[in-house]
Amino acid sequence: MTYDEALTNCIFRYLSGSHAYGLNTEESDEDYRGVFIAPLNTAFDLFQTSFMGQGSIANLIKNAEKAIAIEDYTAAQEMLRQAQEVDNGDLNFSVGTVRKINNDEELQELRKFMKLAANCNPNIIEFLYINDDDKTNQGKHLISHITPIWRQIRENRHMFLSKKARFTFSGYAIAQLKKIKAHRGYLLNPKGKPNRKDYKLPEKSLIPAEHQNALLSVPSEYASKKWKNVVLQEKRYRQCLNDFNSYKKWETERNDKRKVLEAKCGYDAKHACHLIRLCRMAEEILRDGVVLVKRPDAQELLNIRQGNVPYEAIIEIADAMDAKLNALYKTTTLRDKPDHKGIQKLYKNICTEFYGINY
């Protein structure tokens, strides 16, 4: 199933990302997200190969090009091999997400959407809190398509919120923080490609990778210390090589404006903006039981994204927010878990109506 075919069964679609948060600028891309209901005939598709998704040839080749750019030829070769396999072609075994090729647009199938929303996934739960009259800073309506079925889901959005938000939102925030710290390390200490000679290793490993852990687990009386030290050096070399590959990936994928901004403030300000936004949204959910997509603190967040806040202040804010979330988690009136029974009943009612069947 192509994106356009899924769009014919779409029940909700909106302009997401910075436009929805009130953080967009004239240069912001327009990213669309939405939800569709899979046609009934797909339930009888044994391998679900009628859905096009993220495993397409185009994406495999694109990722192979990225691997080549950082000289990770083994990974590139594997991706190109996969691209030639029928099962990996333009088809994907996952019904969950359908993407528009070469555009930042995607639709979640209703079943997957409801599971992710019930888990308080930060990128998904916000769908439920976009309202009919919500607009961008330029006055453009966020919602481009909406149906009575979606309004029914939105009216029951309270069933999806739970204390899980403490961990899902902070989990995403921690991921942003790790990127900030890693990228700051790249800026302050650019990495060079490691050389096996620097680790006193031969040009090619004498011990196959799949045997190295086994060798380390062998008691000392059965394996010499010399060969164990070789394995440890191999591990140190591979870790350093992985760090270098991550550095090269970061270096090649940054656009020129991002490079200038990072040089200015000494860290990835865009990730910092996401970090603080996620923490604030978690606070609002735990305290008030609501997801504020359009940010009341938009100007502050834009100031962070423009690199006007020192790195040390960002870390200080993040630490303070984490402590605040721990306290709110103990006092919040939100349920411990989402209303699984209510959500299941809602899903059944929607399917009965949409497919015209009773089960």
How would you describe what is shown here?
This protein is α+β, with helices and mostly antiparallel strands and 359 residues long. It has three domains: 126 residues, Beta Polymerase, domain 2, CATH 3.30.460; 37 residues, no CATH class; 166 residues, no CATH class. It is built from 15 helices and five strands. A five-stranded mixed beta sheet has the order 3-4-2-1-5. A hairpin with a 5-residue loop joins strand 3 and strand 4. Helix 12 packs parallel to helix 14.
Topology (elements, then pairings):
Layout: H1 3-7, E1 10-15, H2 18-21, E2 32-36, H3 57-69, H4 73-83, E3 97-99, E4 105-109, H5 110-118, H6 122-125, E5 143-146, H7 148-155, H8 165-188, H9 209-217, H10 225-253, H11 256-265, H12 269-288, H13 298-305, H14 311-331, H15 340-355
Parallel strand pairs: 2-4
Antiparallel strand pairs: 1-2, 1-5, 3-4
In summary, what is this structure?
This protein has 359 residues and is an alpha+beta fold.
